[in-house]
Prior knowledge:
Elements: H1 2-15, H2 18-36, H3 42-55, H4 57-68, H5 70-95, H6 101-124, H7 127-152, E1 154-158, E2 172-177, E3 198-199, E4 202-206, E5 230-234, E6 240-242, H8 250-255, H9 263-273, E7 276-278, E8 286-293, E9 298-302, E10 305-308, E11 311-312, E12 320-321, E13 323-325, E14 338-339, E15 351-353, E16 382-386, E17 393-395, H10 398-411, E18 416-419, E19 422-425, E20 428-429, E21 432-434, E22 439-443, H11 453-456, E23 459-460, E24 464-474, E25 491-492
Antiparallel strand pairs: 1-2, 2-24, 3-4, 5-8, 5-24, 6-7, 8-22, 9-10, 9-16, 10-11, 12-14, 13-15, 17-21, 18-19, 19-20, 22-23, 24-25
Helix pairs in contact: 2-3, 4-5, 5-6, 6-7
Amino acid sequence: MSSIKEIYSKVKGWLTNRWVVFGCVVIVVALFAIWYGAWWSLFVALPLIFDYYITKRIAQLHNKLSQQYAWWRIAWGAWCALVFAVVVGVLIYMLAFRWNSSAIVLWIVVAAVFGYALWNEIKEETTIYKWLYSWVHAIIFATVVATLIQLYWFQMFVIPTGSMESTLMAGDYILVNKVSYGPRVPMTPLSFPFVHNTMPLNDTKPSFSTSWERSYRRLAGSDHVKRGDVVVFNFPEGDTVVMEMPAMSYYELLRSDELGATVAERRENIRNNYTIAVRPLDKKENYIKRCVAVAGDSLAVVDGVVYTNGVAERAVPTRQYHYLNGTTGRGIGLQRPIMDADIKNYANENPMKAGRLAAEDRGMLIPHLTEGESASWDLDNFGPVWVPKAGETIALTPENMAMYGRCIAVYEQRAVKQQDGKIYIDGEEATEYTFLMDYYFMMGDNRHESLDSRFWGFVPEDHIVGQASFVWFSVDPDPNGEGVRWNRIFTKIE
């Protein structure tokens, strides 16, 4: 027993040795700085790390000044109190339901009271201050580390709908690997930690500020998006959201005749009767689908089977469809989707995929035309469609602008205008266009119950978040359901 204690003591002493800790921190910081492309920051970071763990000159100087000069203690206390007051104020503002005079008064009062109290504690370095400092230090350290892991390594997500059944079920908690495709550098850095686009307990309050935004940039990854990958990405049409109907795309509402006879009438109706939120790219809602075609592919769906460049997609046993009895025309399988692995059990019912759209639903699928060849496309017979690829050039026509116009105007931010049968890009007439980004075509494995690229188009490369790796927990969201799904915990996502 004593030998085990001795070994534990030696290992603990080695792991807590300041030189060992210093070396580990230097390696991690140096590798991250090089990966990030900011190697020059090491000239500042390494001396500070060396002082923090080894020489402690800055801490000694601070203690010496605090002991000798009252003005230093007061200044230090005032600075800490100011930072605290600003943090408290920002939290109050972001959690408040609206920014009005009451919220301003509350922010000033709370920030002032807590700031003054903290200043008095810090300038005297009382026991309360030391206790508070230790907790604040630990919380800040944990928050910074967890945020960096979430931004650049992996992130947890929960599956809200059944669009990926039976590969992923509603209530699955999944881990998304961001290193696979390279993590995207935050484009909206000023945001509340551990939430996506709205504040906790307040679904209408943004959790981010657009006062500082950065352009798209992605760090080097270990792989690239491939056909068959299960991918998490930002919803391409999620830049504008009707808060009262968050599950519906704003552009889908504009295409629907329920809110008016023309697009202008629908837009005016939404503006006057609903709350509209505009979100930056990295704060759009997160979606998860399977990539069925990558940049440069030609895609077609024939009888429910996806073909890319003329080759059928690989078998996905958990993929599922609705089926009809080929003889009676009625739904089979209790009118529930049936997995590919189970369809053989219904062979005597002559199963036929039930993915046809009603006549009144024409125009729901891209390119959202009600006339022409594409107007007859449905969920099981769709395309062919070419997926845009960076550097590839296409001839522009009024017909294919319906398919690729949003890519050019919105995702690649070019000024597009169509007039008298001619197309103008950035003020000049254009007969062809060269794409700047790669795009992907995503589909849910629940092929007849998934709103995916068939409805809202291509996913640009700058919208990619990461690759879904495995399910780490799963619980049935139905109160009368099976509860915790133990058989799904720690299962790999294929």
